[in-house]
Design brief:
Length: about 600
């Protein structure tokens, strides 16, 4: 799948970014034809796999991306914003790697005379292991994506008169030292909800209290009487603000539908923060530091040679919103195509940038509303917001239930016997189960760091229902590989799929034959990721029988190839039930 980039003139880009009427000639056509068009990525499946190339997301050239960035920043710039603070403030960037609609950056700028943006390369993020099963906490693909996010953040801050100070080490050691060196009265950072991140916040706050500043640091009386810097945590990362919810965090409904209906009826979404075009002056820094390479993070580099290659950073994020909403005009059919699995345009693909904080959910909301006003409003435009509410819900639920979302019984403390059979798990994670739909999805994950929402539900169901494997093994494997990993969404989805989370249906099951017939009826997806199936008739690709590898376990329901090996699989499920995992992580508490 070759990448074709078409440079638009500034005039045509401007018409798309600021549309007065629809400019796309895209019309509603038969869904099957649409999928064929969007799945053109797999045209090479009938030829040699050596010709397959990855497809960039977004698929715009550099000039287009920079133009979209500048135009979007211009729309969210205000000359009315005034500074009223004194002294220096630190912005501690965490999972909010953006300039546009960043409340942390906005508050720091307004309440100071100069801002020092800082990113700490924390070894606990890049060189540690997952809690129970010891997988790498961050894989090479996500590490590379974060590196690209940092490069882009540094560039965009410099465009606004600032820079990004990069230091290697623990934030609780780096941030207080910087606060002392630059006499910073306040450190601003985005508030997180999960224990590891919250623990770091507590350590930073405690260390700041040991720093003594001179009296002329610009601290106001409202910032406290002690002459030490303070850590001000700012809520961000959700579409609905925590303070605007119609209930306390302890009273958040345990069923998503109840939560959604309540916030839709009783809450409004805050507008994106508009900031000054110039955020300078930056403090005088002798050495701002360099964005680390993937090797300097202690990770193994991994090239994406097939499937989708996501570009990290705010510039790419804003370009993807423009590309999907305005240029390709796919927003109006999102609900119909969102369950696809092949190609870049069956869904928005915003999740990697949302997870890194390179993209604001409130910005997406405002773009949806702008699209509805300028083009059309339908079920598809609403459904993008519906999915963002799901994302909010998992974030708020993590606040309510704390570490229980990481425990084997989940938020509801469900008692169930799970297997930790390594042979079964290895077949799942390596894509060697004998079920093409499972194997193709797992191959895509390991090759690209991405998997469709439909695919995630299917492979989760197979692992926990058909194999009987401890759901935490799957969740931690996803933690390693996903570009869009964040603890709230990942573990929220896994507890939901395993029947131990916020799902009124405890035994939710995804039948592989049904899913394959519905979402990959011609086997295009499985043939793309499993080249050995390309020569088979389309109707055989998902059900190849002995023409593919032996199935590792029979399906709980609807096995297309009978129940061969039932006794062997049942015996495998009985091994290691209730096995204890090592306790090495704060999420165990």
């Amino acid at each position: 799948m070759a990448i074709f980039c078409h440079t638009l003139s500034s005039l045509s880009l401007k018409k798309l970014i600021n549309p007065s009427k629809p400019t796309s000639t895209f019309t509603y056509i038969n869904l099957h034809i649409r999928f064929q068009a969007m799945n053109s990525i797999s045209d090479s499946s009938s030829s040699s796999s050596s010709k397959v190339m990855c497809q960039l997301v977004p698929g715009l050239d550099t000039n287009e991306k920079e133009y979209i960035l500048d135009q979007t920043f211009e729309r969210y710039t205000s000359k009315m914003v005034k500074r009223n603070g004194k002294g220096a403030a630190i912005v501690w960037f965490r999972n909010d790697l953006r300039v546009l609609d960043n409340e942390v950056l906005f508050k720091a700028w307004v309440n100071s005379e100069s801002v020092l943006p800082v990113y700490c390369v924390d070894p606990r993020l890049f060189q540690a292991s997952t809690c129970y099963f010891g997988f790498p906490k961050t894989g090479g693909l996500r590490g590379q994506f974060i590196v690209e996010c940092l490069v882009d953040l540094k560039k965009n801050l410099m465009k606004r008169g600032l820079n990004l100070l990069i230091r290697h080490g623990k934030p609780e050691e780096i941030i207080p030292a910087l606060a002392k060196d630059f006499a910073s009265h306040t450190v601003y950072a985005q508030k997180e909800t999960c224990s590891e991140e919250v623990n770091v916040e507590k350590l930073v706050s405690k260390a700041l209290r040991r720093v003594h500043l001179p009296h002329s640091t610009g601290r106001s009386t409202s910032q406290g009487s002690a002459n030490s810097p303070t850590l001000q945590l700012v809520w961000g990362g959700t579409m609905y603000h925590l303070d605007d919810l119609p209930f306390s965090t302890n009273s958040i409904p345990d069923v998503y539908t109840q939560f959604r209906k309540s916030v839709e009826a009783r809450c409004s979404i805050r507008s994106c923060a508009k900031i000054s075009m110039s955020l300078g002056p930056a403090p005088r820094v002798e050495d701002w530091g360099c964005v680390p390479s993937i090797e300097q993070l202690g990770l193994q580099p991994q090239e994406v040679s097939k499937g989708m290659r996501f570009l990290g950073g705010e510039t790419a994020a804003l370009s993807r919103v423009y590309e999907y909403f305005w240029k390709k005009d796919f927003l109006k059919i999102y609900k119909e195509t969102r369950n696809g699995m092949l190609g870049p345009d069956y869904s928005t693909k915003f999740s990697p940038w949302l997870a890194s904080g390179s993209l604001s959910p409130r910005f997406i909301y405002e773009e949806v509303k702008r699209y509805e006003k300028g083009r059309l409003a339908n079920d598809s435009t609403y459904w993008v917001l519906f999915e963002l509410i799901w994302r909010d819900y998992f974030r708020f639920i993590s606040f309510k239930y704390g570490n229980s979302i990481f425990h084997i019984g989940g938020p509801r403390n469900v008692e169930r016997r799970w297997s930790q059979d390594q042979r079964l798990f290895d077949s799942w994670r390596n894509g060697c189960t004998g079920y093409p739909l499972i194997d193709a999805n797992m191959k895509e994950l390991s090759a690209t760091g991405f998997m469709s929402n439909r695919g995630r539900q299917i492979v989760c169901s197979f692992l926990v229902r058909d194999m009987g494997i401890d759901w935490r093994m799957g969740a931690e494997w996803f933690e390693t590989f996903l570009l869009d990993y964040d603890p709230c969404s990942n573990y929220g989805n896994w507890t939901y799929g395993a029947g131990v989370g916020n799902d009124p249906r405890e035994d939710r099951y995804f039948s592989i034959p049904k899913q394959a017939q519905t979402y990959d009826p011609e086997g295009e997806y499985v043939a793309y990721w499993l080249p050995q199936l390309q020569e088979l008739p389309k109707e055989k690709r998902n059900f190849p029988g002995k023409l593919y590898m032996e199935q590792i376990v029979p399906l709980k329901f609807g096995n297309p190839n009978g129940h061969r090996g039932q006794d062997r699989a049942s015996a495998a499920r009985k091994t290691n039930y209730g096995g204890r995992a090592r306790k090495t992580n704060s999420r165990m508490s």
